């Protein structure tokens, strides 16, 4: 089958960084779904895995951890989904990615896609939605609430993929007062469109920006970018006994001074949406359930998709362009590609 992959880890402007390849079509076993991929999305994890390093693969490495498609075959233990179902999912970082004609995914981390969305719109949602959902409800333990809770949240990088859906979930499912960060007029407008109550400039000291909008502190912070760059900013504006969730590792794995949060007794946690699949945790099915609920919320009009750009059919040239756009650091929402023709 056709796919887009790599043998060498190279800068995206090198034509060999992502190439069109032929690989064997996989076979569904156990709880696997064999999905005919109709659309994919690109996330920072794709560009990080592809980034230059001294390593050469003997078989094509396939990237991609956001997909929507149609179930073509199922393993003998599958019970949640069926052949012909239209599904969406993010997959597992430990397995081959979805930038291919067909892809295997465990049924426990996939769900029927929202009926009201196209395959492209649906492919934009899984990874970021799972990340925000788990950060709020599993990691920080924020209570679900359809009415204002009196609590507040700061979303750093509000116009990015995770920020775009995080703002919506925080407003609609947790009743939080949401402050988002952005640094350009178009990103501020997008954050407000997603539902942010206030927007501050993350290029300025947060304490000063909070004073500008008449705020003092927040109960929760979701940092979706530049962990080390915002440590002091976060320490300045989080309430005593607040909760902080990080999703981006420090550059080069360098240590950072978390004692900044000691005096306020801040709970600090990490969110990586691949954890459940990577470690085959007993609650693996939780991702199926949350994606199924997300589909109902989208179809019911509570949440909306975050797709902003479609780079055309999936091939090496278009995927390189998508990776370059993501690496520019100026993306708003999510970008997608259609399936391989």
Relative strand content: 25-35%
Number of helices in the DSSP assignment: 10
Radius of gyration: 20 Å
Second CATH tier, the architecture of the largest domain: Alpha-Beta Complex
Q: Mean pLDDT across all residues, rounded?
A: 97
What would you note in describing this structure?
- With 341 residues, the protein is an alpha/beta fold.
- The chain has 2 domains: 2-125 and 276-338, Alpha-Beta Complex (Quinone Oxidoreductase, Chain A, domain 1); 133-270, NAD(P)-binding Rossmann-like Domain (Rossmann fold).
- The protein is built from 10 helices and 16 strands.
- Strands 3, 5, 6, 7, 8, 15 and 16 form a 7-stranded mixed beta sheet that branches. A 6-stranded parallel beta sheet has the order 11-10-9-12-13-14, with helices on both faces.
- α3 crosses α4 (161-174).
- The longest helix is centred in the middle third of the chain and has 14 residues, at 126-139.
- The chain is globular.
- The relative contact order is 0.17.
- The mean pLDDT is 97.
Layout: helices, strands, pairs:
Elements: E1 2-9, E2 19-22, E3 32-41, H1 44-50, E4 53-62, E5 67-74, E6 86-89, E7 102-106, E8 110-112, H2 119-123, H3 126-139, E9 152-156, H4 161-174, E10 177-182, H5 185-194, E11 198-201, H6 206-213, E12 218-223, H7 231-237, E13 238-246, E14 267-270, H8 275-279, H9 286-299, E15 307-313, H10 316-327, E16 334-338
Parallel strand pairs: 9-10, 9-12, 10-11, 12-13, 13-14, 15-16
Antiparallel strand pairs: 1-2, 1-4, 3-5, 3-7, 3-16, 5-6, 6-8
Helix pairs in contact: 3-4, 3-9
